[in-house]
Amino acid sequence: MCDAKLIADRVVIKRHFEGAKHVKRTTAVPAQSSIATAFEKVKQSDDDKCKASEIKLAAFMAEHKISMRVMNHLVDLLPTMFPDSQIAKNMKMKRTKCQAIVNNILGESEKQDLCADLKEQKFSVMIDESTDIGAVKTMYVVVRYYCALKGQIVNRYWDLIQIHCEENSAPVATATAQHLFEAVIKSFEENTIPIENIIGF
């Protein structure tokens, strides 16, 4: 406010505080809010509380591997169980919204946390090829590393890579060792994971 350079000494600061320049400048500026009021916790709106509840419920469904179809009935049951809860009444989450929250919010958040871990940790990679019900060849990638938060070695899902691509409507055989290697390395490079952190395969 005063644009003054002062020595960090109690006497100097007190003298400046009582000086004409400081008094003149502080009286010209309207009163500012105190530090206590500047950092008051912002109250959550009912809409924000409802969104937070939907995310927690979606996380619960995913963690315990409960079918998303249950949400079609559960969301209608909650207001009858908790008639005094405005959050339960405002919740509008059926199976498609629940699946979208798991994929686009929780999944992305977990991926970012895993990327942060892999940028700092040495890890090994495990892969396995499979064919899904649509006859699409895929490769499942799992990483194994020491998790400091859990204090143990963990296996975490990393990526599901399609290994056969179609060009000009004819399938191209791309399940060669070279292609599999390049697909795995590309998956890590796209997420800026240092390749030198891979210590096992």
Automatic annotation (TrEMBL):
Superkingdom of source: Eukaryota
Protein name: (apollo) hypothetical protein
Organism whose genome encodes this protein: Parnassius apollo
